[in-house]
UniProtKB/TrEMBL annotation:
Residues 303-316 have a biased composition (Polar residues). The lineage of its organism: Eukaryota, Fungi, Dikarya, Basidiomycota, Agaricomycotina. It comes from Dentipellis fragilis. InterPro entries: Fork_head_dom, Quinoprotein_ADH-like_sf, Utp13_C, WD40/YVTN_repeat-like_dom_sf, WD40_PAC1, WD40_repeat_CS, WD40_repeat_dom_sf, WD40_rpt. The keyword Repeat applies. WD repeats lie at residues 531-572, 603-617, 636-677, 847-878, 900-947, 961-1002, 1016-1057, 1058-1106, 1107-1139. This is Fork-head domain-containing protein.
């Protein structure tokens, strides 16, 4: 670098000798030059450090009048003491100066918004606060962004302002980076002694200077002085003009780029712009165009001409002759030139000394670089040593991991040897679930009928009738309605027909499916429909014992008897005083003391006029033939209210009638044959009242029991008159018809209801006696059906017709169950009663105890104890009732054993301890309420089994914790009983540490406490559900933001976000399996308000199964202990049981894959054997259009013409033609579909057209559907046009080839054969 500078200086000296005198001129003494790295940026600054005001940032200070701007001695005679204009005498705003506090950024206040201080203050503090009191522009940016977050997101505009202030403010100075300092960009420092002012002045004009002759200079462009010929003759040499170098924009830019090579950073942008402005406006240095003086900058003088880009003339290197004013003769001019050359020599000497100094600095820099290289080599050796140590450490770690894997493998082998084999389902991913069964609405009000065998039940569900299998608990079929409600319903005694009457007064007769039939997917349609059977709605109907006739009673007091098989009325009985309320058939059974001649079919009717009428249908028919109106055989009066129930014994002797007057009347239908009149005349005709029984309730149903049936509590006897009643008190009573006493009461009488609505919900609307099963079915107003067993007196089955919205669900296990699987499921609905269903059948029980709607349910760790919380601000514990029955079908009952009271709001969340106590009992329970508190309850004194006639105990609260700011939605306890999780509508989930100490002795009490451990924040809406993972420290939550989030319990940060629901996620749970001591897969199941249940693979963050079985929000979700069953309950009152069928699906897929492989191999074998018929049929059955296309393509390419054949093959093989000719219509339609797809592409259209041509030729036109032809014609026309275009273009090719052959004939003699010999072309002949 020093040598290059010396060469430049020698070249400059040679150029300057042109104007130097020949005699030697002594060099001036060495100047005392203040050298700095800034002065190296420009060569003219090095040579004229004191002349050029542009080399110093302080050159705006005007010189004194006594000093001349061109005099170098005046500026280098001695250093000028600068004035300190930047001493801070007053404290800065927001900062009190003290001795130990420099002006740094830490002294300025922190703020998240835009800083309140100006940029000069911030820049000054940033630079002065650095260790070396200097910073590059990028370090200034970093310091400002670190101090004020505002600058991180404010864009790039503020950086331009920083560069602007650094370039123009006098306070800041730029210091070039030393050669030995690695990196890019100059440093910026603060000059506290700079004069006051905010900006450096821009040179809009030079201050007024004097010329050498003492005259003031004038501004303007210099003008040439025209010298006359006389003056020229006086001179002994040609005219000498002053050499004034002119600034050129292009040259200045080139020079500036040379000078700027030392700066490679963006911090010089503003200085560059300032220098460009100064370089491009050199006219500002002169005061007058006539009085310009020669500028002796070194880089402006050049002996080589520099031509302008536009004109090509020498504009820079060629000196211009300028007139000189103020001189009287040539001697003065020579003196001035000598003085200028003396100054140039002085400057050259100074430049030599500077270059020597630079050479010394370069040597020092090279030595420093050598030292740095040595240090770098040492560091590389250290790094290599560290890398070697790291590789050794990694090798040791891998060896340790291998040994650990070996140890774990040995441990697993040992565990398999000493522990039972794990379940094949454990640890497997569950991807498929099937709908096993559902608990759907069964009965919403209206009439009910039962088949004679008691196995199937017909109920009304809205506007349709539903047939249900009572043993399996499944729906068999539905009967199509006419969009009107069903008013009357009955099943014939033969069990073959179902008869419906609707509000439209139509009669609809259906054929009943056989008992062994499978459930039907399509609804059943009626076999016969009579549009207007009555003129008024029908309220009662009943079929005769022979299943031949049907009696129906309407609201207009008319009773019609219908022939079921033929569908026409045989009798019309009028005369009732209002709505017909009850019907009964009397047709004695042969063999019960009844002769064939005494068998008379009678019909007994009751109406709102309180009378009971007996009709002899044979006499009524005779009267109708005679043209008379039918009259009843007898009219029985004894009721004072509407008779609601009628029944006749099998022998036709006894008639019982019960009404809303709370009495039951027993009539003897054959009393006329035994009793005589005391007066004159014949014997008295008609039934006789023999007994009046007071029922003490409004009777809605009454019926006679068979004499041979065994009734609990009845005395021994072969022939007994017993009947049953059901009414407003909700119980079924069995009476002794002889003495009017109650034999047995089914159900419990409830105390007086607080409101009329509750009383109506409790009453019985109807009762049906089923002789085949000795069961009485009671239909209650609350849409429940109870099955009472007469021999045992117990409730054998209970069906809940309508559950309303399912709010919560949980599994329970019966203590008497032989296996550990769950036997029952508890449901909380929009009611105060808890539904307890069997997991196998529709049998259910109702648990009463709450006074308001039940909101939440939970089961204990053993699964035998149930907890419930409701709007009555209380929680109740339900324990199983001990039973001695060992039958698998025996239903387990639960009873309330304790209650927890103390909350000020509804209890919407419950959680049991996950572990049992040392004695195997309960430990504690948590309740969460709308009062935003969590209570911990001591359950150590509560028994896990209910005791008979024991009053519920009051639980003691251990602690109360204010948990959330809004309602608490869910609680969950960790498997170790160490943590409690809660979630709320305040969009957070919190985790608490549980501290529990059991009672040390009988007199002491347990202690419990909750301590907040962490809060999970991230949900954008309320959190509905929270669950701990069973085998990992992970927490799952579901919120109203439609996401499922997984949280780590170490830092409470979000690990996963599962998105897929289109509405709020209401419930989440983990699918786990603990069989064989292993945990199941990492699957999470979630239920949302979109009616979907989704199963998620946590590790893959994907939804592996979507279960669609609901039409409304899924509020309830329960998972069995083995993880194989999922129960979901929704607002559509449907409960769905989902069973894991992953193994079955995998097995089916494997079988299908194996079968596919075999069939593909068969296809290849058929093709190899040229058995094209089977090959084509197999390809069509496999639905492999690609293989079929390949077959047709190979046949077309390998087709040969057989000259001996009478008709050539169209497809390429006669066997294929025969196959296409005899193809089945189904396979033909499939093949045409493939052809349509092939024909749509130009690459496959040829084969498609070939096969289509074969089909059209070999088969009649009717076999090809019109829709396929419509799809084939457009593409076929397009292919035809393309082929025609190619044919036309081929004519051009033929023409060109023909012309080429014609010209070749003329040029045949001129052709020359060329051969290659050794890689060189050689002419053979001409």
């Amino acid at each position: 670098m020093g040598a290059g500078l010396r060469e430049k200086f020698a070249l400059w000296t040679h150029k300057c000798n042109v104007f130097m005198p020949q005699h030697p001129v002594p060099f001036p003494p060495a100047l005392k030059i203040s050298f700095s790295p800034v002065s190296m940026s420009r060569l003219d600054t090095i040579l004229n450090p004191d002349n050029d005001y542009r080399s110093s940032p302080r050159s705006d200070i005007a010189p004194s009048p006594s000093q001349s701007p061109a005099s170098p001695a005046s500026s280098v005679s001695g250093p000028v003491e600068p004035k300190n204009y930047y001493v801070l005498n007053t404290p800065m705003p927001g900062h009190d100066p003290h001795p130990d506090c420099p002006d740094t950024l830490s002294c300025l206040p922190d703020t998240d918004g835009r800083p309140q201080h100006t940029l000069p203050i911030i820049l000054r503090c940033a630079i002065l606060g650095s260790p070396k009191k200097r910073l590059t522009i990028r370090e200034i940016y970093s310091a400002m962004e670190l101090k004020y977050p505002y600058y991180r997101t404010a864009g790039q505009t503020w950086k331009q302002s920083v560069r602007h202030h650094l370039s123009l403010n006098r306070l800041f100075e730029r210091q070039p980076r030393p050669v030995t300092d690695p990196g890019f960009g100059s440093y910026w420092t603060v000059n506290l002694e700079a004069p006051p002012g905010t900006k450096r002045p821009r040179k809009r004009g030079r201050p007024t200077h004097e010329t050498p002759d003492g005259l003031p200079r004038k501004r303007g462009r210099p003008r040439k002085v025209v010298i006359s010929s006389d003056e020229t003759e006086q001179l002994d040499h040609p005219p000498i003009a002053t050499l004034v170098p002119q600034y050129d924009r292009r040259g200045d830019e080139a020079y500036h780029m040379d000078a700027m090579d030392m700066y490679d950073d963006e911090d010089d942008d503003e200085s560059y712009e300032d220098n460009q402005f100064r370089l491009h406006h050199p006219e500002d240095d002169y005061e007058s165009e006539e009085d310009m003086v020669m500028d002796l900058d070194l880089h402006r003088r050049s002996g080589t001409p520099n031509y302008d880009n536009h004109s090509g003339s020498a504009s820079r290197g060629t000196p211009r002759l300028m007139p000189v004013h103020g001189f009287d003769g040539a001697g003065d001019l020579l003196d001035q030139l000598r003085a200028e050359m003396a100054g140039l020599r002085k400057q050259s000497a100074d430049a030599v000394s500077v270059s020597m100094r630079i050479s010394d600095q370069l040597s020092e820099a090279q030595a420093e670089a050598a030292r740095a290289k040595a240090q770098l080599k040492a560091l590389e050796k250290v790094l290599e040593e560290e890398s070697r140590k790291r590789r050794e450490a990694e090798k040791l770690a891998s060896d340790e991991a291998r040994r650990r894997e070996d140890a774990e493998g040995a441990l697993h082998r040992l565990q398999r040897h000493w522990s039972p084999s794990p379940s094949p389902d454990a640890g497997k991913e569950r991807r498929s679930f099937k709908k096993a069964r559902t608990i759907a609405p069964l009965y919403t009000g209206g009439p009910v009928a039962v088949t004679p065998d008691g196995q199937r039940l017909v109920t009304c569900l809205g506007e349709e009738a539903l047939l249900t299998d009572l043993n399996q608990g499944t729906e068999i079929c539905r009967f199509v309605g006419d969009t009107e409600s069903i008013t009357a319903l009955c099943i014939t005694p033969s069990g073959k027909h179902v008869v419906l009457f609707t509000s439209s007064m139509s009669l609809r007769i259906f054929d009943l499916p056989p008992p062994s039939s499978e459930p039907l997917s399509a609804p059943l349609h009626p076999t016969r429909v009579i549009a207007r059977a009555h003129n008024a709605p029908v309220h009662v109907c009943k079929a005769d014992p022979t299943s031949t006739y049907l009696a129906s009673g309407a609201a207009d007091g008319t009773v019609k008897v219908w022939d079921i098989a033929r569908g026409f009325p045989t009798h019309v009985l009028r005369g009732h005083g209002g709505v017909v309320s009850a019907l009964a058939w009397s047709f004695p059974v042969l063999g019960l003391g009844v002769d064939l001649g005494e068998r008379t079919m009678r019909l007994v009717t009751g109406s709102v006029d309180t009378r009971v009428r007996v009709w002899d249908l044979a006499k009524c028919a005779e009267e109708a033939k005679a043209g008379k109106s039918a009259r009843p055989e007898a009219v029985l009066e004894g009721h004072v209210s509407v008779p609601r129930g009628l029944d006749v014994s099998a022998d036709g002797r006894w008639l019982v009638s019960g009404g809303r007057d709370a009495v039951v009347l027993v009539w003897d239908m054959k009393a006329k044959a035994e009793k005589k009149s005391k007066g004159k005349g014949k014997a008295r005709e008609g039934p006789v009242l023999v007994k009046t029984v007071t029922a003490l309730e409004r009777v809605e149903a009454v019926g006679l029991l068979e004499e041979e049936v065994e009734v609990v509590g009845s005395s021994e006897g072969s022939k007994k008159l017993r009947f049953y009643t059901a009414g407003e008190k909700g119980v079924v009573r069995v009476w002794d018809g002889k003495d009017g006493s109650v034999i047995w009461t089914f159900g419990e009488e409830h105390p007086a209801a607080a409101s009329e609505d509750q009383e109506e919900q409790r009453q019985i609307l109807d009762a049906i006696y089923v002789p085949s099963t000795s069961t009485i079915i009671s239909i209650h107003a609350d849409q429940n059906l109870l099955f009472h067993s007469l021999p045992t007196g117990a409730l054998s089955r209970q069906l809940i017709g309508f559950n309303d919205e399912i709010i919560d669900a949980t599994f329970l296990r019966s203590p008497s169950a032989s296996s550990s699987s769950e036997t029952h499921i508890a449901l909380a609905t929009n009611s105060s009663l808890i539904r307890l269903y069997s997991t196998q059948t529709l049998d259910a029980r109702l648990l009463s105890g709450h006074t308001d709607i039940v909101l939440s349910l939970a089961s204990s760790a053993s699964g035998t104890v149930l907890a419930s919380g409701g709007k009555d601000r209380s929680a109740r514990l339900w324990a199983p009732v001990p039973t001695s029955s060992t039958s698998a079908n025996a239903h387990q009952d639960w009873s309330c054993v304790a209650h927890c009271e103390g909350h000020a709001g509804s209890i919407g969340a419950l959680a049991f301890a996950r572990q049992t106590s040392a004695a195997g009992g309960l430990k504690f329970m948590f309740t969460g309420s709308q009062d935003r508190t969590i209570k911990m309850w001591d359950l150590s004194s509560i028994s896990a089994l209910a005791e008979e006639d024991a009053e519920p105990a009051q639980c003691h609260s251990l602690c109360t914790h204010k948990a959330h700011d809004k309602d608490i939605n869910a609680l969950d306890v960790a498997p170790t009983d160490a943590l409690l999780a809660s979630c709320s509508q305040d969009r957070t989930a919190k985790v608490y540490t549980i501290t529990y100490a059991a009672a040390a002795h009988a007199g002491a009490g347990a202690r419990g406490e909750l301590t907040l451990l962490g809060t999970c924040r991230g949900h954008k809406r309320g959190v509905w559900s929270v669950r701990f993972a069973r085998h990992e420290r992970v927490l799952a939550t579901g919120g109203g933001d439609r996401t499922v989030r997984l949280w780590g319990l170490d830092k409470f940060d979000c690990l996963r976000v599962l998105e897929g629901h289109s509405n709020s996620v209401l419930r989440v749970d983990w699918l786990v399996s603990t069989e064989g001591g292993r945990a199941g897969g990492g699957e999470v199941v979630s239920a949302g308000a979109d009616g979907l249940v989704k199963v998620w693979d946590v590790r893959g963050e994907e939804c592996v199964a979507t279960l669609d079985g609901h039409e409304d929000k899924v509020w309830a979700l329960a998972v069995s202990a083995d993880g194989k069953r999922i129960v979901s309950g929704a607002a559509d009152s449907v409960v769905t049981f989902w069973e894991d069928c992953t193994e079955e699906e995998d097995k089916k897929h494997e079988e299908a894959r194996a079968e596919m492989v075999l069939r593909e191999q068969d296809f290849l074998n058929y093709v190899a054997l040229q058995d094209y018929q089977r090959a084509i049929e197999l390809a069509l059955s496999l639905e492999h259009p690609g293989r079929l296309y390949s077959l047709f393509k190979d046949l077309a390419s390998n087709a040969t013409i057989d000259p001996s054949a009478q008709r050539p093959s169209i497809t390429g093989h006669p066997a294929v033609d025969s196959v296409l000719r005899t193809l089945h219509p189904t396979d033909l339609a499939r093949l045409l579909g493939y052809i349509r797809t092939w024909n749509a592409r130009a690459s496959t259209s040829a084969i498609a057209q070939r096969v289509l041509h074969a089909l059209v030729s070999l088969r009649p036109a009717e076999d090809i559907p019109a829709d396929v032809l419509e799809a084939l014609i457009p593409y076929t026309e397009r292919h035809l046009a393309r082929v025609e275009r190619l044919v036309r273009e081929s004519y051009v090719v033929d023409f060109v080839l023909g012309e080429m052959d014609m010209h070749a004939e003329f040029e045949e003699d001129d052709r020359m054969d060329i051969e290659l010999e050794g890689g060189r072309a050689v002419a053979v002949g001409v």
